[in-house]
Amino acid sequence: MAGGIALVTEEELSVTHLRQLMIEELRRRNFAETTIRSYVHGVEHFSQYFHRRPDRLGPEHIRQYQAMLFSKLKFSPNTVIQRLGALRFFYIKVLKRNWSIAETPYPKKVIRLPEILSPEEVARLIDAADSPFHRAMLMTLYGTGARRAEVAHLKVADIDSQRMVVHIHGGKGNRDRDVMLSHKLLETLRDHWRGLRRKSTEWLFPGNPWHTSCRPVTTKVLWTACQSAAERAGLDKKRIYPHLLRHCFATHLLEAGADLRTIQMLLGHRDLEETAIYLHLSSKHLRVMASPLDALTLHEPGGRAPQA
Question: Which domains does the chain have, with CATH numbers?
Answer without folding.
Answer: 10-94 (1.10.150.130), 119-288 (1.10.443.10)
